[in-house]
Amino acid sequence: MLILFSFLLYFQLFVFVSPSSGETGIGKSTLMNTLFNTLFEAEEASHYQNGVYLRPRTYDLKESNVQLKLTVVDTVGFGDQINKEESFKPIVDYIDTQFETYLQEEMKIKRSLFDYHDTRIHICLYFIAPTGHSLKSLDLVTMKKLDSKVNIIPIIAKADTISKSELHKFKIKIMSELVSNGVQIHQFPTEDEAVTEINSSMNAHLPFAVVGSVEEVKVGNKMVKARLYPWGTVQVENESHCDFVKLREMLLRVNMEDLREQTHARHYELYRRCKLEELGFTDTDPDNKPFSLQETYEAKRKEFLGDLQHKEDEMRQMFVNKVKETEAELKEKERELHERFEQLKRMHQEEKRNLEEKRSDLEEEMNAFNRRKVAAETLMGQSLQGSSQPFRKDKKSFFSLPSACSLTAGRNLN
Ligand code: GTP
Ligand code: MG
């Protein structure tokens, strides 16, 4: 689980729960309340989100003469989904968006960085559940995605639920896994002599094992923040009970300014460099000579116009090719149609020829028949001259059928 912070000191604190914990309710709100000795909104987050969303809340806090504008960004739903692979993306995007907004302000002609509401994230508190088991690969992947963008401080939450010896082993295991996977968590700086000793010893205590509670309990004659159990009391601010005081000292007293500086000089600078390089800006030309902004702009403009021209040429060529292709397709279709027409024409002529042949055959037959008929009639006429009347009558009815047939055949041929 993750919490991000920023300080007017503008301070952005990012609260982040280890995705492998697979649950929220790990004690983020309680720890924030304990850390800043106040009661932030205690609305319980829904744990049935489809995705991860970030809930930034800004508070005005005042301690001594320091006014603190604190933004706490809660990662709601982180680790609650079945598929957690893309869980870190909204967080990375959120951090980048804050850098981008700052970069836009910086690049304005009229900048107002002095009273700019800096929303860049200064700390990511990475909450690890007190399981005693090793970190999951998803934890390592998530931290790896974030370590170049934000100062990660891993903390073991609800440290009162793990025994002292288990906690010791758990801390060693976590640190060795982080080192062997190349995850860079935030190291408190040791260069400044004033803080060398305290910061080196605090670095050795990472990850801080914390307990949160806003409940006040009387111990001796003092009221202290504690968690009461049937077997005893866990005092939040007792260094032999947990690392809460160490965390508070490191974040809010000793290193707050350094965390802000690291955010600007390391993480933001990296974002800015990558972004400007992505936009094509360089400091030197190919001959290693310094490049002025004007020259870079001109070069970029030329490159852009060249690209545009190239794209236009490509589109024109594509259009010409398309027209040619369509033309060729149409020609092919025309040729196919012509071929089909010729084929039909040939078939038609063939059929016509066949019909002609049949017609002439039938005419031939008809002529032959007519000839035979005339011959028969002549023959019959001759033989009738010497025969009786009744017999002639029968013969006439015999010839009436062929003559009717010849007439029908003649009509069909027409
Ligand atoms: P969501 O916002 O709902 O995700 O929860 P959260 O992470 O803000 O957890 P919250 O602070 O609301 O605490 C959840 C429960 O854990 C409460 O019952 C707290 O009293 C308890 N709790 C908080 N801190 C600790 C702790 O250090 N130790 C133990 N044992 N319980 C704690
Ligand atoms: Mg909460």
TrEMBL record:
Q: Which residues form the Septin-type G domain?
A: 12-278
Cellular compartments per GO CC: cytoskeleton
Its keywords, alphabetically, are:
Coiled coil, Cytoplasm, Cytoskeleton, GTP-binding, Nucleotide-binding, Signal
Which cellular compartments is it found in? Cytoplasm, Cytoskeleton
Q: Which domain of life is it from?
A: Eukaryota
UniProt-listed PANTHER family: SEPTIN (PTHR18884)
Tell me what this protein is called. Answer: Septin
* Family (UniProt): Belongs to the TRAFAC class TrmE-Era-EngA-EngB-Septin-like GTPase superfamily. Septin GTPase family.
What GO terms are given for molecular function?
GTP binding
Alphabetized Pfam families for the sequence:
Septin (PF00735)
Q: What is its main location?
A: cytoplasm
Please name the taxonomic classification of the source.
Eukaryota, Metazoa, Chordata, Craniata, Vertebrata
